[in-house]
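Re: [help] complex structure
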Amino acid sequence: MSIFVDDDTRVVVQGITGGEGKFHTRQMVEYGTNVVAGTSPGKGGQDVDGIPVYDTVEEAVDEEDANASVVFVPPAFAGDAIFEALDTDLDLVVAITEGVPTQDMAKVNKRLSETDTRLIGPNCPGIITPGEAKLGILPGNIFEEGNVGLVSRSGTLTYQVVSNLTERGIGQTTAIGIGGDPIIGTSFVDALEAFENDPDTHAVVMCGEIGGEDEEQAAKYIAENMDTPVAGFIAGRTAPPGKRMGHAGAIVSGSGTGTAESKISALNDASVPVGDTPNEVADHIEDFL
Amino acid sequence: MKLHEYQAKDIFAEAGIPVPESRLASSVEEVMEAVEEIGYPAAIKAQVHVGGRGKAGGIKIATDEDEARQAAEDILGMDLKGYTVDRVLVEAGVDFENELYVGVTMDRSEGKPVAMVSTEGGVNIEEVAEENPDAIAREHIDPAFGLHPYQARKVVFEAGIPRDVAFDVASFLTTLYDLYESNDASDIEINPVMITSDRDIVAADAVMNIDDDALFRHDDLAAMEEDAYENDLEAKAGEYGFDYVRLSGNVGIIGNGAGLVMTTLDLVDYFGGEPANFLDIGGGAKAERVANALDMVFSDENVDSVVFNIFGGITRGDEVAKGINEALESFDEIPKPVVVRLAGTNAEEGMEILNTDLVQVEGTLEDAVQRAVENAQEVSQ
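Output below.
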């Protein structure tokens, strides 16, 4: 089994005629993903490798029965593209675009809360259910079908940990990069909950990083709600304090969250072992299985 | 992008937020000219991006000419937490009765902006947040509608702002939120906002950070960018559009994706080395970008060895390999040993392209980092 995407997912690629959109549509199709349509305003009626292009997402949904979209639209227009997707009641929107202004995402987040659509990203590598479908830019060849779920804030760190797992013959149910931006659609807790409810997921890897307090919230969720074992990794132990995080964040929460230390200790308190290296995370997962 | 205090205050003044009269000065003579125009007492404030400037000796109050000259001599050229002070803001002193803290920032766990007001201004507000969080009133803002006037009043009354200035502080906060939104700020903080004996409100300090991802729609702010950097390498990183942080070690690190680059830093530390920098070339980097990254790291005189850690998704290994070759071929002698680890999209093609006379190639992350740490140790011996 899997979470969020499978063989039946019918995908529209927003921004299919752009360089990245075109390249990764080919990669997705090659992987076996059911890409049924693309959009590119003003280029409706054309096609990309036989995939019909529409001017609007609404047309793509009406004509091709798409139920998920992948957004490859440049940052300046990505917020608008996500709004467009949300207005068609898709089940899932995966926003790959990096560099979407935070205030645009705050508006998207508000709209999202009024819909039933699941948003993954932005600034994420996407989601893959090995052997079935991938929505995004993840390199398909490093994944393998199996029973470990993976959720990560960092794309490239996802690839690293997955390759550590796959090299040992440990496959994955679904892997999701949720994105590292301040405002994202799907959180660790959302993904962990879905993995907990998936009978085929026997263990979960959670890769976090400094900043925000998503990992601390996830630790709380794991302690209270999960039977499936989780192993963690936290990037940024050596990151200089205050360099990347505006200090106002600490004033909002009024607590010392957001550091690697606070995240690691929150996870340890929830009985989640945290690896010092990606390889050690794979060791922990091996122990669970 | 962090704005300097003087840059933020220019923006405030334009929006009608009262700020003290001030002049920017970069020499003792300029400071003396400025105090002559402004009068005493005057505050002389280092313009560098570090918190706690006052405690670190970067802010001094002068009540006469001798003190002004002394302050200018002390502060200009001083090293403030690693940054050399080359400019000061000379500002008229404010005779105040109350000090407030007012801020607007993004609350990432709520996904909404939040306005914050406290009567405990003028001190370390982070400590207040930690020890007495209730002393800071907070109000979340619906980004679709902005800060409603009733919300501004609510947070101001909740904070216990004196009634005779409450409406003025509320309208001050509304202006601040408008600035936050219209400039795509990531946060704005004023600590302290001063209430004078005439019950006027003055922004005595100004912290304003802009969302880099939104600079494309703010030409006016982008024009301030050159002035916003602290050192040559950061300015260079800004020009190239890299996420870059300079650190104190000697192992230069280039990678793609913040999480993986941070992990590489952590592993350098784990294997007994010290990272010299964080450099994320971002997603989908082409050959030229890779060459620029190498140029950045080679220009840091602290760097003794370099490790490239690329796990391609949207980034393609062959492009990266071409970039590395092109950049290194331009040298008669490669300045520092370079270890490369390529995985993911088109990694095999990349490995074939890499010129192994120019770089050392390793198959795993651990091996690459260990080798780079060893290289650095050899070079520094």
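Chain B has a mean pLDDT of 91.
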